Amino acid sequence: MSEFYSEKDVQREVTALQGKSATAARLFDIRRIIGGLFVVYGVIVTIAGFTASDADIDKAEGVNINLWTGLGMLALGVFFLVWLKLRPVAPPPPGVVPGEEERAE
């Protein structure tokens, strides 16, 4: 018993796989990962800066280094996430296989 697929079934399956591939590419975009990590760590370090003792600040010669580093990390993380939002990854055009080049024969 063998199954035969119509051209319409094959095209529908290819379209579904292309949609999943584009979603995976957007999900694992390195800007999302880096931006998310910098935002999370920036929040943690900023909170540590707000709760710094006078002894901690005196060690850094009067500069609340955790606060400034945390705010810098937050700014960098937000930059990456805004960049991702403004310039999303474009899916490859249909029929193009990444890494495969057309050969002139």
Structure description:
- This protein has 105 residues and is an all-alpha fold.
- Helices cover 67% and strands 0% of the residues.
- The chain has helices at 7-27, 30-50, 54-59, 65-86.
- Helix 2 runs antiparallel to helix 4.
- The longest helix is centred in the last third of the chain and has 22 residues, at 65-86.
- The radius of gyration is 24 Å and the shape is rod-shaped.
Structural class: mainly alpha
> Rough shape?
rod-shaped
Low-confidence stretches: none
Strand count: 0
The radius of gyration over CA amounts to 24 Å
Fold blueprint:
Layout: H1 7-27, H2 30-50, H3 54-59, H4 65-86
Helix pairs in contact: 2-4
Quick rundown:
The chain is an all-alpha fold and 105 residues long. Helices cover 67% and strands 0% of the residues. The protein is rod-shaped, with a radius of gyration of 24 Å.
Q: Keyphrases for this structure?
A:
105 residues; mainly alpha; 67% helix
